[in-house]
Records
---
Amino acid sequence: MRHLTDSKTAVALFAGVTLVGALSACSSPSTGADSGSTDVSAPDAGSPASSTGAEYNDGTYTETGDYTSPDGAEEVEVTLSLENNVITDVTVVGFGESPNSKQFQGEFINGIASEVVGKNIDELAVDKVAGSSLTSGGFNKAVDAIKADALAE
């Protein structure tokens, strides 16, 4: 009888480990399509100097970032205002062609200001905003170009 109890314990243990693994896979960020919740990593600005030691010129900068969606190539135009390396204002214009692209860009546009205003530009890492994960790729490319512009002046 002892052998049967050990087998039941082993099966229960295996089932528990399998369940934990399956649940942890469900909590991983989605890839490949715009969906889900907001996920923006951006620590508070803290000090005016950036985390990389770069100093950006105050001002308003506009750049376009591209990304690929299931509907093809997409673009967003990003305008950021900087003061002491901190984002004080943001505007995003989407150029989506398909209904899906327009929807996801619109959701991103409606949610981005509350996620980035007040953050240090060098500590910004936008992953997903208001369910839109792919639009953030274009946004991040535009931010990288804006950083280069703000350093060059």
Note: Residues 9 and 15 are 10 Å apart (CA to CA).
---
Amino acid sequence: MAKSKKNITIKDIAKKAGVAHSTVSLVMNNKGYVSDSLKMKVMKTAKTMGYEPNLIARGLINQTFPVIAAIFPENPSFFTITYFIQIISGIQDVCKDTDNALMIFNLDQTQGESYYQVSRKWLSKNLIIMNIDYTKDMDQDIKVLKKNNISFVLINKYLGDEDVSYINVDNFSGVHQALKHLIDLGHTEIGLIAGDLKAPDGMERFDAFKKILKEYKLKFNPKYVYEGGYFSFDSGEKAALQFLNAKKRPTAVFSSSDNLAIGFMRVIKTKGFTIPDDLSLVSFDDSLEANYVTPRLTTVRQPLVEIGREAARLVLKQSAEKRYRTKHVTLKTELILRESTKPRK
């Protein structure tokens, strides 16, 4: 009876290729020196026989698994937020191409959980950290990762003292695109739904908003700032209540995220406001929901899938290189015009 493909071992490959068992082991584990011609012979034989390496067994031997651990903030609605899902999709693309597994973790720093604990518990030395809450001092945790030679990349700019690799987007350019669009439509009184001001994106978009108004010689009105807080639908709804309770309102609003904008829209529409007839609204992210609400959101697209891909490529490169230098990657944004804005009356 022919041997089932799933039971093929490196001993079978060695016998078929006419080489030593140890040679096949070196090739499969990418360790030691094997000539290119012999390596090609082993790989071709393994492919012909339908060999699939047991990555778990390999990990137990090496005490490390070919795993990228993607660590996200603690959030009960995590798997309903397409912002995160699109980033995960990009990470998964690279995992498929590189024979790495992807594990996803929610980590609550307020409960004393650490990134190093995740790495040790799951034997992963490649971490992608999506941290948007800098209320806790992360420097000590980062130092522990460095001390133990754990490769890691942050998604979002790091605000601490340690030099780390991170991926972010050009927030200033994105906000500039959004505000220029509104100003070109004739809007001079523009409000802001602010994001989390403890997070880099929230801070940078808020600062950019003020600087760009000044650039166009428009007045910044603190009464037109509606505090969204966390980048969520609920926070957008709270911002809408501030908007509705105000005596004087702007003719256009820029939102720091799509989720904030969608929550904001839902509430003000129930009170009789029509977008864009009564209020133009432009947002930031271009999440999947932005194209399916009514009206469809004009928004600044950040390349969420590419952010995930770039983070995965970067952490694997960092892991492979002995003398790795930290890198800061900033990706471009693009304004996507839809239906939520129109010229001022």
Note: The first strand starts at residue 67 and ends at 73.
---
Amino acid sequence: MQVRPEDLAFVARFVEELCGVVLDESKAYLVESRLGRLAQEHGCASYRELCERARRSGDALLRTQIIDAITTHETLFFRDQAPFDALQFKVLPELIDARTRARAPRRLRFWSAACSTGQEPYSIAMTLREMFPGNCPWEFFILATDISDAAIQQASRGWYAHHEIQRGMKPAMLAKYFVPKNGGYQVRDELRAMVAFRRRNLLEPFGDLGLFDVIFCRNVAIYFDAARRRDLFFRLAQQLVADGVLFVGSAESLLDLGPRFVPHNHCRATFYRPNMPAPRTNARAASGAAAAAVRR
């Protein structure tokens, strides 16, 4: 079933209200490929009828089904690798050293926002275990959230098919942290115990989640408009401790958000410390780059 041009704007507004994903005229194919089967299942003659039914009836299940269908769940273990190297060899040693010198509690909190089916938070957990292979004197907590109920359910199970494991997983890590099960692989219980999965819409307030030392929010804001993107990253910054670190996608840059978001580079990865005073020279460079980006 094709989406009618006169219906696309209505569908796009409804989807943006639900989850922030912006669909323009070039995304008609996405509406058809993601919502076609759902429209047929509900006996809707058009995509507009499907969205009108979800809006008018307040059908929470239908709204959830639309969100699950339209949001992207494409991911893999240790995606882009560089952020996990930077986490292991730069960010974590600095955070641990700072906490030790301050005699603060030996506790670090991580948030994998838009975690999809769990590959990212489990990759973070494996990185932590690799740093402390024996008895760990530190307490680690990983919160993993996603807007999709289906994605959260799969992530919580911690079971992955063979083709999902092969994407990004090193054989040594597979042998150490997974067990064969039902033709696929199950995350070991000690690794699953490090991660708590919850449904969370990033458009909604998340001040109740507490403060984090490290936040991963990668490849989700690229689907937002400029205002929602800016709002998201400033709200994420509020959830970081003073020296907390924010990782975004490898193709994302936050230079346009001002000198508060000065990039730090290590292990071919870029991350941000939005709550720490930036070096003056870096701040000027970031401001100049942001101004240049605006002029372009």
Note: The chain has two domains: 5-70, 82-295.
